[in-house]
Design brief:
The structure holds three protein chains of three kinds.
Chain A: H1 2-47, E1 50-52, E2 59-61, H2 66-107, H3 112-120, H4 127-138, H5 143-150, H6 164-188, H7 192-200, H8 205-216, H9 218-233, H10 237-242, H11 250-259, H12 264-289
Antiparallel strand pairs in A: 1-2
Helix pairs in contact in A: 1-12, 2-6, 2-9, 2-12, 6-9, 7-8, 9-12, 11-12
Chain B: H1 4-7, E1 12-20, E2 25-34, E3 39-43, H2 50-58, E4 65-70, E5 73-74, E6 85-88, H3 100-110, H4 116-126, H5 142-154, E7 160-164, H6 172-189, E8 192-197, H7 200-206, E9 209-214, E10 217-222, H8 224-229, H9 234-239, E11 244-253, E12 257-262, E13 265-270, E14 280-285, E15 291-294, E16 302-315, E17 318-324, E18 330-336, E19 349-354, E20 360-363
Parallel strand pairs in B: 3-8, 3-9, 6-7, 7-8
Antiparallel strand pairs in B: 1-2, 1-4, 4-5, 9-10, 11-12, 11-14, 12-13, 14-20, 15-19, 16-17, 16-19, 17-18
Helix pairs in contact in B: 3-4, 3-5, 4-5
Chain C: H1 2-10, H2 12-33, H3 52-55, H4 63-94, H5 100-112, H6 115-128, H7 135-159, H8 163-171, H9 176-205, H10 208-213, H11 220-228, H12 234-262
Helix pairs in contact in C: 2-12, 4-7, 4-9, 4-11, 5-7, 7-9, 8-9
The chains are: A mainly alpha, B alpha+beta, C mainly alpha.
């Protein structure tokens, strides 16, 4: 009996210990995120209200909130362009990825896993390399360009690269896997019998899609559009490689302010504005689509 | 140091066991004794607290109050891996990454037993699947997985084996076969089995003793025949098979039997089979105990006249009649087809009769429909 | 004619999928093809077929140094992010504790922040503290943005793990530690491996955050970006294609191993 009471005493103690355990598990990761995500964002905010000091790259805190006004007014065109390009690219990616994800989820049979791997596989050829490849394929001397002129789809005088079209196409291309994977995983969870049942209840293929398949795949649509829109809105590589001076996005401005002009306050103000703008849009979007599954 | 997992044995005693969650009480002040070596069934609809009771015995749920003893050992707050209790889980919970052999050997290895191979081989022989030792669980059929789940538990020779709806995932034919096999295994190795199920037929086939649970309490406990022939509550009468329950009042109270007035007609109820507390009573009779005859012929025993056949269903071995009585109640009658098809039809006026010893009496304050809507065919 | 139309409409979705994959793979194929281009400096125009670039993948200046850095950074960042992220996923997936929604938010925020902002803010802080960007700052940055993806991936895996398996282990005399070692961890291992692979590929392919926090240290994407201005050497195509095939083989082998483990 003495032994048994010792056992139950011990189990009480381990019960208590277990309530500390989650915090122990969280601690290192959260410390990392605190120091290298939250702290930097706070530094960014504090830098955004500084003004130039004596030397190059030196800035003093003067709480000049007008930095935001100046920065936004000067770059409003690029801001709007970023959200415009990112929106179009997101919609394009959704249109391309949905049937792709659908085919993998329901029509691929035993090839399912292989096809899934193939969706992610282009990642491993560096995304910069692939973007440059597009530039070369569609450039004036590229095989893609020559092929399209040979087909008389475009005239030899036109050019495909260094254009808004090329930037949006590049964004669409680069984030396509981010759209396809979440779509796939929510489509895959749908019981195909629900679609058969819809057909059985006199819905045609289109109505079945609109009333059954699409609503059930909404979590994937929401996750995919976010994973595409967020990086697309902040991207500058596609605009750099595939665009021209008239297609510069906000990312190009921030990048140049930081790394070339060394105007940290303006760059910080723009960065923080971009972050807040995206967070507001994301929050509204998640609220509206009623999906909290993401977090 | 003596390990409780090997030393404890004896009857299982639950005293005042209670489990409350935030918004409801799953198990309410449960007290019962399960004799060592018996095959005990906890029977009830889903949500009645039977699975929670099982999980508390297994140590997977902490009781809010009360205690659990095996013999003289208090296991109420013991960690699950310290208890001499093993479980056959619903859907089996076989480890998908381990071979069948390693699944069965799992408990033995954790306890540091020496002759693992010998014991595993022996138990695989017992469940007749020695040839599957090197397979993975997903390669086995449902019935085979079920047997491996039993083997994995009994190889540890626990003082108590818990079975949580172990046959729920199997089809009817396989289920019947496994019922017989489980019963055979239990007699063969002589362990105490506690079996949780919502299937009354399954409980009746296998168990020595059945406890019928409803809303966290035990309604009635006894042998299958005892529960069926002499239910003490309307819930038991309706949940275990079907019953006709007719409201009446006790007119006279003899030493052997009671005379009960059922809407103007008098029937006898054996005194010992009545649990009425005052003159109000529900008279119960099983449908197969009723005899049905044309109004014109004579009948003996307890007799009720004035019935009209509302519906006839012929189902091979028997015929089921739905009879409308003069007071507006519908009664069920099952008649064996041993004389061929009886010459009775929808709309015929008939008389019902039965032997008084088959009658049981319930307290008149009970709801005559309790438990009937939960009948049988639900799945958890 | 009608037959052909019916075939077409029945296979419409498959045809569409094939087109989708073609779109995905055009630049990969192009990169692969031009890895055999017999070009001296700029790899723009086809000048004939050669194996020289594959025989001599480090032939271009600094390319293998950059690749080596990328692999080293990827491995270190993946190891740290996988451990930290898995721990967080366990806390979120298995325990009830106060402040859970705050933790969820802190995990979600880095994923909802553009890479540019992540990179820029980190650089701002490093500069404020007089910390020179280099190898260490790249690793720090990569761990930071990989943690969230690891948490999300592993958490999903934990959520789909049947709790009855762990209960069964406890029922069969395994204490908490043994249950974790013999049941929980082996069953989650494929999910954790998947998360690690994701983290490595995110780290290996990252350019924007790296470009901010790398100082003079070169990584493979940075090398490609910089040398693109004066003509990309064919060795970049060789390495890009090789990484593609290596990753494909690793993932497919992983799939085969997993299938083996399940059946047989």
């Amino acid at each position: 009996m003495a032994f048994l009471s010792a056992v139950s005493h011990k189990s009480d103690e381990s019960e208590k210990k277990r309530s500390f355990l989650p915090y122990l598990l969280l601690l290192p990761g959260l410390v990392w995120l605190f120091f290298f995500f939250l702290m930097p964002i706070l530094t960014l905010v504090s830098t955004s209200t500084k003004t130039p000091g004596l030397g190059i790259g030196e800035f003093d805190q003067t709480y000049r909130f007008a930095n935001y006004w100046d920065a936004i007014v000067n770059s409003r065109g690029q801001f709007f362009r970023s959200f415009e390009y990112a929106s179009i690219a997101t919609i394009m990616a959704l249109i391309i990825a949905y049937p792709l994800a659908y085919a993998i989820a329901f029509r691929s049979g035993r090839w399912k896993n292989v096809l899934l791997v193939l969706v992610v596989a282009p990642f491993f050829t560096s995304f910069i390399l692939r973007t440059i490849a597009w530039k070369q394929i569609l450039g004036g001397q590229g095989i893609g360009f020559k092929f399209l002129t040979w087909l008389h789809i475009i005239s030899p005088q036109s050019h495909l690269t260094a254009s808004a079209f090329a930037v949006v196409a590049g964004l669409t291309y680069n984030f396509l896997p981010f759209m396809t994977l979440p779509l796939y995983s929510s489509l895959e969870r749908i019981d195909p019998r629900t679609m058969e049942a819809s057909g059985d209840l006199y819905a045609n293929a289109f109505t079945t899609f609109r009333k059954v398949t699409l609503p059930l795949s909404m979590p994937g649509v929401v996750a995919g559009t976010l994973l595409t829109f967020i990086p697309a809105a902040g991207d500058y590589v596609n605009a750099e490689i595939l665009g021209n001076p008239q297609t510069k996005m906000i990312g190009n401005v921030i990048n140049a302010r930081y790394l070339q002009i060394v105007d940290y306050p303006t760059a910080a103000a723009l960065s923080f504005t971009l972050m807040v703008a995206i967070l507001i849009m994301v929050t509204l979007y998640i609220r509206k689509s009623g999906t909290e599954e993401l977090v | 140091m003596v390990d409780a997992s090997t030393s404890a044995h004896g009857d299982i005693k639950l005293s005042n066991l209670t489990k409350s969650f935030a918004d409801f009480t799953a198990v309410d002040d449960l007290t019962l004794t399960i004799p060592e070596g018996s095959f005990f069934a906890l029977l009830g609809p889903s949500g009645c607290g039977k699975t929670t009771t099982l999980r508390m015995i297994a140590g997977l749920e902490e009781p809010t109050a009360g205690s659990i003893f095996i013999g003289n050992t208090d296991i109420t707050h013991m960690r699950p891996y310290k208890r001499p209790v093993n479980t056959v889980f619903q859907n089996y919970a076989l480890f998908p990454h381990l071979s069948i052999f390693e699944n069965v050997a799992f408990g033995l290895r954790r306890r540091g037993i020496k002759d693992v191979k010998e014991q595993v081989d022996k138990v695989l022989d017992l469940v007749e699947l020695p040839h599957l030792a090197q397979r993975k669980p997903l390669q086995l059929s449902g019935g085979q997985q079920q047997r491996i789940a039993v083997a994995r538990a009994i190889v540890n020779r626990p003082a108590l084996l818990l079975l949580d709806e172990p046959l729920g995932a199997l089809d009817l034919k396989l289920r019947r076969q496994m019922q017989i096999e489980l019963k055979w295994i239990q007699t063969e190795i002589g362990l105490t089995f506690v079996h949780v199920t919502h299937d009354q037929e399954e409980a009746m086939t296998m168990a020595d003793t059945i406890a019928v649970m409803n809303e966290g309490r035990i309604e009635q406990m006894g042998s299958p025949a005892d529960l069926y022939d002499n239910p003490k509550t309307a819930f038991v009468a309706n949940f275990l098979g079907q019953s006709n329950l007719i409201k009446g009042s006790i007119e006279s109270n003899g030493s052997e039997s009671l005379v009960v007035n059922l809407f103007g007609q008098k029937v006898a109820v054996p005194r010992a089979r009545s649990s009425a507390r005052d003159s109000s009573i529900l008279v119960g009779i099983r449908p197969e105990k009723l005899r049905i005859s044309p109004e014109t012929s004579s009948a003996s025993g307890n007799v009720l006249t004035g019935g009209i056949i509302e519906d006839v269903s012929y189902i091979g071995v028997s015929t089921q009649y739905q009879v409308l009585m003069p007071w507006g109640q519908e009664l069920m009658v099952f008649e064996q087809n041993d004389d061929g098809v009886p010459p009775l039809d929808k709309g015929d006026r008939i008389t019902l009769s039965w032997e008084p010893i088959f009658t049981f009496g319930l307290d008149g304050s009970e709801d005559a429909n309790a438990g009937s809507e939960l009948h049988n065919d639900e799945e958890e | 004619m009608r037959k052909a139309r019916r075939w077409f409409s029945r296979n419409l979705i498959r045809i569409y999928a094939v087109m989708g994959f073609t779109y995905l793979f055009i630049p990969v194929l192009y990169t692969f093809a031009f890895s055999f281009n017999n070009s001296s400096k700029s790899n723009l125009v086809w000048r004939g077929f050669t194996f020289n670039n594959w025989k001599n993948p480090c032939g271009a200046p600094d390319v293998c140094n950059a690749l080596g850095n990328s692999i080293k950074i990827g491995l270190i960042a993946t190891a740290i992010a996988t451990v930290l992220g898995t721990m967080i996923a366990f806390a979120l997936g298995r325990y009830a504790f106060k402040g859970r929604s705050l933790v969820n938010l802190l995990i979600f925020l880095p994923m909802a922040t553009p890479e540019l902002v992540l990179g820029a803010s980190l650089l701002t802080m490093f500069l404020n503290f007089g910390f020179n960007p280099g190898f260490v700052t790249i690793v720090i940055a990569h761990v930071m943005f990989c943690i969230s993806f690891v948490v999300v991936t592993v958490k999903a895996r934990i959520a789909s793990l049947d709790p009855r398996l762990e209960q069964a282990a406890m029922d069969l005399y395994a204490d908490e530690r043994e249950t974790f070692r013999r049941i929980t961890f082996p069953l989650l291992a494929p999910g954790i491996a998947g998360a690690a692979l994701l983290a490595f590929s995110l780290s290996f392919d990252d350019f924007i955050i790296t470009n901010f926090n790398s100082g003079n240290v070169n990584t493979f994407p940075k090398f490609v970006y910089i040398s693109a201005e004066r003509g990309l050497p064919a060795q970049a195509n060789v390495i890009g294609s090789a990484m593609f095939f290596i990753a494909l083989i690793v993932v497919l082998l992983g799939q085969v191993v997993q299938r083996r483990r399940k059946v047989s």
